[in-house]
Specification:
Blueprint: H1 2-12, H2 19-26, H3 30-33, H4 40-63, H5 68-85, H6 87-91, H7 104-120, H8 130-149, H9 159-176
Length: about 180
């Protein structure tokens, strides 16, 4: 049911995902869904956990065997591809806080963070600056991907070329530290 909700969110947008729409998609009555989830907030949280886990798998798998700029490019491209392919489920992850250290959202978030931390090992980032570097990477990748998913780049320059500029920019910045 969570996978169906995530797929529907990708199609119609997270803001348009309702228990009624999901029930219709699944061919059941809305009250039947409450046997599986506690309501809309619970469904959205479960979608966020699924999305974060899938993003962690995508980025973690992409960086295997790479270091430095190659790892950075692989991670950034995998993250962007995930967001573009799954904009609704990715939207569920934005601003959602884990309820505690045992929350599955926290575990999935750590896995995604670990994948990006692995990228930083190819650079001489001072341990005291790792959090700043991770925030920079998240901001760049998240910002670009979510703007692109929302059709926010309407001018003539090639979007893929712009994304490669972003990767080169981040690489130069990480090398300069």
């Amino acid at each position: 049911m969570v996978a169906a909700g995530a797929a529907l969110a990708d199609e119609v947008g997270l803001a348009n995902l309702t228990m009624g729409a999901l029930a219709e998609r699944l061919g059941v009555r809305t009250p039947s869904l409450y046997k599986h989830v506690g309501g809309q907030d619970d469904l959205n949280r479960r979608i966020a956990v699924l999305a974060m886990s899938q993003a962690a798998d995508a980025v973690g798998g992409a960086v295997q065997g790479y270091a430095g700029r190659d790892a950075l490019a692989a991670a950034a491209r995998a993250f962007r591809a995930f967001v573009l392919e799954h904009p609704g489920r990715y939207a569920a992850t934005i601003g959602l806080e884990p309820s505690g250290p045992d929350d599955p959202l926290a575990a999935a978030g750590r896995r995604l963070l670990d994948a990006f931390t692995a990228v930083l090992r190819g650079y001489e980032v001072d341990p005291a600056d790792v959090d700043h570097a991770l925030r920079m990477l998240r901001s760049l990748c998240h910002g670009f991907a979510t703007l692109q998913a929302a059709n926010g780049f309407q001018w003539s320059a090639d979007i893929d070329e712009s994304f490669e500029w972003l990767i080169a920019f981040a690489d130069r910045g990480l090398r300069a530290r």
